[in-house]
Amino acid sequence: MEAKTLLKLTIKAPHSIYLIVFGLALITSLQSCKKNDAINQAGQADKLAGIAVPSISETKAIAQEAFVYGLPIVMNYAIMNEYVINKNSGQFKAPFNVIKNENRVFTYEDTAVISPNSDTPYSLIWLDLRTEPIVISVPAVEKNRYYSVQLIDANTYVYGYIGSRATGSEAGNYLIVGPDWKGTLPKGIKKIFRSGTPFAITIFRTQLFNAADMPNVAKVQAGYKSQPLSQFLNQPAPVAAPKIDFLPATTAGIKTNFYQYLNAALAFIPETPENKAIHAKLASIGIGPNKKFEFSDLSLEHKAAVLLAMKAGDDMVSKYLVGSAVKQINGWGLAALFGDASFYNGDWLKRAAAAKNGIYGNEAVEAVYPLTRTDVNGETLDGSKHNYTLTFKAGQYPPVNAFWSVTMYDGKTEFLIKNPINRYLINSPMLPNMKKNTDGSLTIYIQKDNPGANKQSNWLPAPNGPIYLAIRLYWPKTEQPSVLPVGSGSWSPPGIVQTN
User: Fold this and answer.
1) What would the CATH number be for the domain defined by 370-498?
2) In this structure, which topology does domain 100-232 adopt according to CATH?
3) Can you say how many angstroms the Cα of residue 344 is from the centroid of all Cα atoms in its chain?
4) Is the pTM of this model over 0.85?
5) What is the distance between the alpha carbons of residues 424 and 112, in angstroms, rounded to a whole number?
6) Distance between CA 113 and CA 359 in Å, rounded?
7) What does the alpha-carbon distance between residue 470 and residue 189 come to, in Å, rounded to a whole number?
8) Beta-bridge partner residues of 178
9) Which alpha helices (DSSP H) does 140-296 contain, by range?
10) 30 phi and psi, to 5 degrees?
11) pLDDT of residue 322
12) Domain-by-domain residue ranges, the chain?
């Protein structure tokens, strides 16, 4: 639920898979051509019930745009299915409009969420705003405990925050409304937030100081409440919105069902001036609520072109993430990729990169995420080959108003890793129990083997293979030295050094 948190699904099908699938489709297609050459000539538009379909080259271009535009939407739709629709998904949290509190942090056993945050226990609620608005209530939270409530719609736009930074530590009631709601600020409500879509996820993050602090976190979480506006106002409830038979979807199924999922998800994405043109393009190849034919009716040649388009679209997103969008500093990549609709302003590639980088990431004013797979010299981090250190100089810890952490992930899966001390991160609340160097600096030992009793307090266990690391800076300071603006601030994370 942030860059490298709740879910970062990456389309990882190797080139060979695409070529094999394409080859099979092509062989079948050629066989079909012999039977009906008039219909399946390369580059010629299909005719479906008298409706012209774009040529194969046009279909490929549109499908590539569809992948870039639709990646965040599809990822969100799949997560929604697993979390609130399919009770047998193994990842089910709660029905719509019901808060689910996780009175724990994520561990290596949590595999639905790629690169999860493991230092702020989560509370989640998926809002269905079709019938009426929902009131989110928060308790008073002690000022030294950071918490945030992030509001995200099905476009993956961050449309607001409640919490320590945004609204303070006082108790309050906040109204979340759908895109079509018309009304005024009700009595007892501090602020109205408008979602751009009828279904939207709300993510609560509550700071945990240490393992013994969990009961205190649970007490804060118990104070998070949700209720329909009619209930809050003691008024009769309106007629409920009709039940929806959602197309079943899983995060694992995105690779093979991407366009099918996109077709289903677009039914819940209202048309806006920003997306009107791309929606029209998608409809021309049978995707979306305004389509004139089924995407599945495309010819085999067109379908093969779509497979190649998906690969090309994924490559575009990957290149964007290693290009100018991400600034490399001491081996760490920094980027500001998350925001509201105006932040993206129709830049679908930037939005797709944000989702692939870590869906549901925070805006930079709320959190910044330096990420790396390489050491300070640009060599790939690998726990099976080397040990590493990360050293913060005296007085040069990350500049934050809340707290910071360094989290370890398996470089292959991007999940947390099983280790003998059940430690997945090192964060600032742990500093009192860590050993400082004689010059006042702090060294974190990044390696698969225990560095010994005298260094274990500073050990961040690594996998026996590729390493992926994320620094999280919650509520970054704006006064200098600051990490803001992202990638050009005066504070930079120190590089990771190979020690053997």
Assistant:
1) 2.60.120.1600
2) Immunoglobulin-like (2.60.40)
3) 15
4) yes
5) 17
6) 10
7) 37
8) none
9) 214-222, 229-232, 254-265, 276-283
10) -65, -35
11) 83
12) 15-86+248-309, 100-232, 370-498
